[in-house]
């Protein structure tokens, strides 16, 4: 079968790729497994040099890689360039800090010497999504390879050019050929790969249903897994917030990548005393988001990645309107080529609506009125998801308390929109998954934390 790379801005097929047969998959797994035995013995300093070289390759190839992202999944070209640069930063970060993260931890016991030692597990299968087709992969690969693991990538079927380009970056940087390999396959081969004894762990970024399937398979075969799943991030706007700054951050958080982000701002929970003021300014800014060809740097937002995603999103909008939500702007399918959907705002969103409970994976904002701080926190936590969250207040100590102690989420921001950072742990709770990526926590997820006791 063929994997098709389709430009969502016009629906045209860019290129078709032959899917790997199982013999190809098995051969790649074996090569990756054999590469691990030498890679884990490669000095940490040498791994760091290669990762630093990957940083240089990414920056040298930024324009071509950004173009691949934009034409395959529709991201605005400026955002695509920023994504490539972020990949370079994460490689740079682990090149600079990986050796420190891998140091032995001396632990005082009644032994003559005792410590915790970090040892790599082996081949890790990475099942990655299309929405950040380079960043999602590099945020796994940089720490995993630096730690001495090797990687196998099963990327989303609609971004095969990006998937192959990632492998080429590592090869061009000087990594041994089989340390990181891309598998051009569909999801129907994943279960068999996870079951393979040579695969030691699996990481997935994707939907909650996909995560549950992978977790079940990994559990059946006792494989370590890390899951970063869906989100419906709540942003609380308190009565003492700087409304203009809050609106700017909330709009940016909602339309980034045309709203196709697990940690995109989705539910805006506004204390009733500032609900009208926030809504007026927010709707005005959302209404003026320019939509168009993602290659055009003057356009703020490109299309959604696939036509079926747009149809699903529009059904959620209509469901919410039918149950009483107010359409304040957007909410229609444009009469033009491409999978475009305008920035959309739904007001008076309440429990029982799709816009309240479900993840809206596109540029649709849900405005929810709260009585006060306590009610806002209750609404924010009234979700099956727990990925990111934000709170806006001019009282920083108040915001810090709410973010740290009150919000059921893996990461919480105060007075800004949520985003991942190589220096901070990233991941979710509840049905947003488990395990952590990034920082030293992410590096240690796929390590054997071995206790050593010497008399």
Please provide a written account of the structure.
- This protein is of the alpha/beta class.
- It has two domains: 2-229 and 430-454, Aldehyde Dehydrogenase, Chain A, domain 1, CATH 3.40.605; 233-414, Aldehyde Dehydrogenase, Chain A, domain 2 (3-Layer(aba) Sandwich), CATH 3.40.309.10.
- The chain has 15 helices and 18 strands.
- The longest helix has 25 residues, at 77-101.
> Would you give the CATH topology of the largest domain?
Aldehyde Dehydrogenase, Chain A, domain 1
Spans where pLDDT lies below 50 across 5 or more residues: none
- Given helix and strand content, the structural type is alpha/beta
The main β sheet shows up as: 7 strands, mixed
| CATH A-level architecture of the largest domain | 3-Layer(aba) Sandwich
- Give the CA-based shape: globular
Distance between the termini: 59 Å
Give a count of the beta strands, DSSP E runs of length 2 or more.
18
How many H/I helices? 15
Q: Strand arrangement, largest sheet?
A: 12-13-14-11-10-15-16
Q: How many domain units?
A: 2
According to CATH, what is the class of the largest domain?
A: Alpha Beta
Rg (CA only): 22 Å
Tell me the CATH superfamily of the largest domain: Aldehyde Dehydrogenase, Chain A, domain 1
């Amino acid at each position: 079968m063929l994997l098709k790379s389709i430009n969502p801005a016009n629906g045209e097929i860019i290129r078709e790729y032959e899917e790997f047969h199982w013999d190809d998959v098995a051969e790649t797994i074996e090569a990756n497994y054999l590469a691990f035995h030498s890679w884990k013995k490669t000095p940490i300093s040498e791994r760091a040099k290669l990762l630093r070289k990957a940083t240089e390759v990414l920056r040298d190839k930024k324009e071509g890689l950004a173009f691949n992202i934009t034409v395959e999944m529709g991201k605005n070209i400026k955002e695509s360039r920023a994504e490539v640069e972020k990949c370079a930063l994460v490689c740079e970060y682990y090149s600079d800090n990986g050796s420190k993260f891998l140091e032995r931890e001396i632990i005082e016991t009644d032994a003559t010497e005792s410590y915790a030692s970090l040892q790599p597990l082996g081949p890790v299968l990475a099942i990655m999504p299309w929405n950040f087709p380079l960043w999602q992969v590099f945020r796994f690969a940089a720490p995993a390879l630096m730690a001495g693991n090797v990687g196998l990538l099963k990327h989303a079927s609609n971004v095969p050019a990006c998937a192959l380009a990632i492998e080429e970056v590592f090869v061009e940087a000087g990594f041994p050929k089989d340390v990181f390999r891309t598998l051009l396959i569909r999801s129907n081969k994943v279960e068999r790969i996870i079951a393979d004894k040579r695969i030691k762990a699996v990481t997935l970024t994707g939907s909650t249903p996909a995560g549950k399937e992978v977790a079940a398979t990994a559990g059946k075969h006792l494989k370590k897994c890390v899951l970063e799943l869906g989100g419906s991030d709540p942003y609380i706007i308190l009565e003492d917030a700087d409304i203009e700054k809050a609106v700017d951050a909330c709009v940016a958080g909602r339309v980034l990548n045309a709203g196709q982000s697990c940690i995109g701002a989705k539910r805006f929970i506004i204390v009733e005393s500032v609900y009208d003021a926030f809504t007026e300014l927010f709707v005005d800014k959302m209404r003026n988001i320019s939509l168009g060809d993602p290659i055009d740097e003057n356009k703020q937002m490109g299309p959604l990645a696939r036509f079926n995603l747009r149809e699903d999103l529009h059904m959620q909008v209509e469901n919410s309107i039918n149950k009483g939500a107010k359409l304040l702007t957007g909410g229609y399918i444009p009469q033009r080529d491409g999978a475009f959907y305008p920035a959309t705002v739904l007001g008076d969103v309440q429990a029982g609506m799709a816009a309240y409970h479900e993840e809206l994976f596109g540029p649709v904002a849900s405005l929810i009125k709260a009585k006060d701080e306590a009610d806002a926190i209750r609404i924010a936590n009234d979700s099956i998801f727990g990925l990111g969250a934000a709170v806006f207040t001019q009282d920083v100590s108040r915001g810090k308390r709410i973010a740290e102690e009150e919000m059921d989420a893996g990461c919480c921001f105060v007075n800004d929109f949520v985003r991942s950072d190589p220096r901070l742990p990233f991941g979710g709770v509840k049905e947003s998954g488990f395990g952590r990526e990034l920082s030293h926590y992410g590096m240690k997820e796929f390590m054997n934390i071995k206790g050593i006791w010497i008399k």
